[in-house]
Write a structure and sequence with these properties.
alpha/beta; 198 residues; single chain; Rossmann fold; three-stranded parallel beta sheet
Length: 198
Amino acid sequence: MVSACECVEDRAITCIGVDNARSATIAVDHLLTLGHRRIALIAGPPSSPLSADRRHGYEAALRAAGARSGAALMASGDFSAESGRSAVEELLARKERFTALFCSNDEMAIGAIRGLKAHGLRVPEDISVVGFDDIRFARYTDPPLTTMAQPKNELGREALNLLLEILGDTTVPTRKRVLAADLFVRQSTAAVPRSTRK
């Protein structure tokens, strides 16, 4: 057995996935380099290990930059577009100002963009948005979504190679392989609005 895309803690299982914490840090660092300091998070379900890792990466980036974080700038969804829209509604209802939004997956980012637009906010002129996964529709959103792209082909190829090794020799030790995700910058992110810089 090989677990692909999400590494499990069980040491008896070989797995391959991406470094979710590091990838989230890269995504938030992109927003920080654009001048954003009030960056909100829409996390996935707390029970999901990858959601926890992406939240840790988000927090680590803000901490390293001395930028503000905290519960008031965080909401959770279930990785669906609908939950992304609900989560952004929750964030906006708190009246907690933010200029950028990091979403733990692309579907929630797509829903969040719809929610922001429903409140008359423009992406990226008012709020920049970054997703995670680079799903097929990310480049076709309005605006096209900046996102962390998982190396899907490499994940599949390496998972099969690892499985074939195990099938060929059951004494092969279990391994944990971690691949890098790539930042794809599209039109959903921009420099922090001049009127909100501090």
